[in-house]
Target: Protein sleepless
Amino acid sequence: MRQSMALRHLFLLVLALCTLNAVSGITCYKCMNFSDPSCGEPDYAGATETNPDRDSCYIRFLPNGLISRGVSCLNGHIDGECDDFGDGVWGPDGDCYCTEDLCNNSMCEFCIPENH
Model:
């Protein structure tokens, strides 16, 4: 009896630890600067979105000067990750990612090559 109780407690402990690694969701700023001009400003603090199935936010710089912010459509990005950053028509283009709620309010200065 005591051994089965110990096994049950061990099972519950392992289950709880596995649950800690599961995606707990994230809240990010959500905007695009052609519909919300303040989206392109540093320290953006406007509309938000929450997705319980995702783990990171993004800021996307497009070659035509558009900027968008939101919840990343893929899990597994690391905090401070930069994708395809280079010189676009209007400045840097690419995506940067962060992993805390409302973290996508910067302008990804850490991704711009001359800031490395």
Summary: The chain has one domain: 25-115. The domain at 25-115 is CATH 2.10.60.10 (CD59). Residues 2-20 form the longest helix (19 residues).
